Structure formats: C-alpha cells, structure tokens
From TrEMBL:
Organism: Pseudomonas fluorescens R124
Top-level lineage group: Bacteria
UniProt cross-references to Gene3D superfamilies, sorted A to Z: Phosphoglycerate mutase-like
This protein's name: Fructose-2,6-bisphosphatase
Lineage: Bacteria, Pseudomonadati, Pseudomonadota, Gammaproteobacteria, Pseudomonadales
Amino acid sequence: MFIECSALLSTRLTLICHARTVAQKLARFPTNEPVENQPLKLGALATQFANASLLSCGPELRTRQTAEWFGAAPQVDAALRDCDWGRWHGQAIKDLQVHEADALQAWISDPQAAPHGGESVMQLGERVARWLTSLQGVPGHIVAITHPFVVRAALMQVMQGAGFNAVDVEPLSVVELRFNGIWRLRLPGIDHAGAL
C-alpha cells in the first residue's frame, strides 16, 4: 500500500535547455534575445513529452519560444529565469578576459562572488533549491524549459552529499566529459539536424 501511494505522488521533472541563441554562438552573456531563426527537428522530442502534466518555462523570450515548439501553452515561472548577469549582459567573455580578468576569475572561482552586480552562483543555487523544494509534493511529469545555469544549479542540488547514489544511468545513456583545465560534464543537446 505504501509503495502504491508513493508511486502515485511521485514527481518527474525534465529540464530542457532552451534552443541556441546568437549570444551562445558568440560566447556572450545573454540578453533577452530570441532563439536562432533556424528550424529544429523537435517532433520526436515534443512527442516524447506530449503527456506531461505541466509545461513551464522561464520568462525570457528564448525559453518561451522553445517551449512553444512543444505545442502547448507554457506556464511562465519566474523561478526558471536566467541568472541575473548585471552589467555583464551582452558582454563577450573574451572581452571580459581582457578588461575584467580578475573579476571574471573571482566569479568563476568563488560561488559567492557577483562582480557584475547581479546574482551570484550561490544565490542562483538557492533560488533553484527553493523551486525544487516547491515541486516535491507535485505529482506527475513536469517539463521545464530553462537556461544552462539553472540546469547546472538543479544538478548541483541533486548531487550534494550523496552524489554517487543520486545518479541513475539508464541503458544507452550518453554522458560526455571534457577536460579544458577542469573536468566538465557536458549534456548533449539536439542539433539543427535533429541528431543527438
């Protein structure tokens, strides 16, 4: 009986990063830019999540446009908004490496730092943690279209403490790790040709 009740009340959350923007291609901090005006073959992906009980997205144009490709009117959730980049909105990372190298390094190495005057990584993590807590009693499948940093923050909440036992690896799963000074987990997305 307990197993049946807990199964009925389980929450399934699928986080999907918004489609590519020009700012991402140019390695710039985002503004409220649209997704690239190139067609994506999202049919299989949209069909996979067609029976979700809730489709939500961040308030930015790029998340709303991506959510619309799933064929339902998304519920805009402010908790899924991108990190507040302060005065770095629209700035190229390579320009910051030249003109604000110390500030950029402080932001990368210290999760409490917010040299751009916006939201720190720690503040973003706290916001995402509150959002995840609010979903714990919501049964059904929630699909949330959001931003790379929000997805990262959610993954860090799941991985805290008992990281090894908090990861399920399904058959034919693909996990990509890349090393460029530090090891990074790379979650492959769907490309413009529709391949994973």
